[in-house]
Design goal:
five-stranded antiparallel beta sheet; DUF3567; DUF3567 domain-containing protein; 2 helices; alpha+beta; 97 residues
Length: 97
């Protein structure tokens, strides 16, 4: 787990779990050099008090967009605007344990 971003509006945390051993019969067994990775990004909207966890193709799209944005030396407002597009999909309320 890595906190990637923390502004007054959003928090973005990356979860990356590497699975070393594939299950018997899985395709990865034939290609031991491949590593199965599971994970994604948790985006918390501090004002709306909602969160979303994105994974798979959507997480890759988010990561690619952030990397492209970083190349342009964005302001915090630029980053927040980009993240907000994903955060709007969140419907899970943030609850303290």
């Amino acid at each position: 787990m890595h906190m990637l971003y923390n502004s007054s509006s959003f928090i973005v945390v990356q979860f990356d779990v590497q699975v070393d051993e594939p299950r018997p019969g899985e395709l990865l067994k034939a290609n031991p050099e491949l590593q199965l990775r599971r994970g994604g990004f948790e985006i918390v909207d501090k004002f709306a008090r909602k969160e979303i966890f994105i994974e798979g193709a959507l997480a890759q799209q988010f990561q690619d967009g952030v990397e492209a944005l970083i190349e342009r030396d964005p302001s915090e407002e630029d980053l927040d605007d980009f993240i907000e597009a994903y955060a709007r999909m969140g419907n899970q309320p943030v609850v303290m344990h």
